[in-house]
Amino acid sequence: MTITAAADGSALGNPGPCGWAWYIDDDRWAAGGSPHGTNNQGELQAVLELLRATAGTDEKLVIECDSRYVIDSVTKWMPGWKRRGWRKADGAPVLNRELLEGIDEAMRGRDVSFSWVKGHAGHPLNEAADARANAAAAAYKAGEEPRRGPGFVSAADAGATLAGAMAVTAGAAVADVDAGASRPTAAVPDAASRRDAEPAPLWAEASDLLDVLDGVAPASDPIELRVSLSGEEHARLRDLADAQGVSLEEALRRLI
């Protein structure tokens, strides 16, 4: 099968508050940004985040872009830049090298192609990505948290996640009966409610986790948490840190 997605970026002022977004359908999209960036940086970031989000699938990926700069950079110019140590033909350093190197790494071993589409021409996927990228940039301009979107979940991952949630719920119910607890267990949301629900911001997820831990161990006992972050989750944390002007470590500590 083939995954077709649009990737787009936006910068209010160029440079200015920056947004990026990729869009497959209403159940699979993501957006983010930073307080300051260029339109080209937003465009490249959208492609990189899409590659990271879909890294776990072996399906062919077609990326639709309205940016000739992005497509030409990745498909035409990058090999020469790499041979010259990431310098252009005139010897000048390549702009946005970090993003381009990330895209180059994320594409290795994958079947990825690019397709140019005219922007603002009524193309459904492009219009959806453009709207979300612009909304993210506007959110950063207003000092607000942008809508992040549901991200990417393959059909197999969705089935495994639901099965795991059901197993956890069933196990909790048995534990409550054994312990004589009267606390009701959480219901597993149906597919429609999961699709329509707006994802909670990162700080809310951390708060929920701490609520669960509350009372599990005495306050004097240290609790070590190990969390594996997906590429999208790492990007969300990075965006949050950038918005606050702090390091990733400090952003995590502020969540607590």
Question: What would your notes on this structure say?
Answer:
The protein has 3 domains: 140 residues, Ribonuclease H-like superfamily/Ribonuclease H (Nucleotidyltransferase, domain 5, 2-Layer Sandwich); 46 residues, no CATH class; 57 residues, no CATH class. Helix content is 49%, strand content 16%. Strands 3-2-1-4-5 form a 5-stranded mixed β-sheet. The longest helix has 25 residues. The relative contact order is 0.15. About 24% of the residues have low confidence.
Layout of SSEs?
Blueprint: E1 2-11, E2 16-25, E3 28-37, H1 39-53, E4 60-65, H2 68-83, H3 97-107, E5 112-116, H4 124-141, H5 155-179, H6 191-196, H7 202-213, H8 231-244, H9 248-255
Parallel strand pairs: 1-4, 4-5
Antiparallel strand pairs: 1-2, 2-3
Helix pairs in contact: 1-3, 8-9
Summarize the structure.
With 256 residues, the chain is an alpha/beta fold.
Tell me the total number of β-strands. 5
End-to-end separation? 42 Å
CA-based gyration radius: 21 Å
- Overall structural class, as computed from helix and strand content, comes to alpha/beta
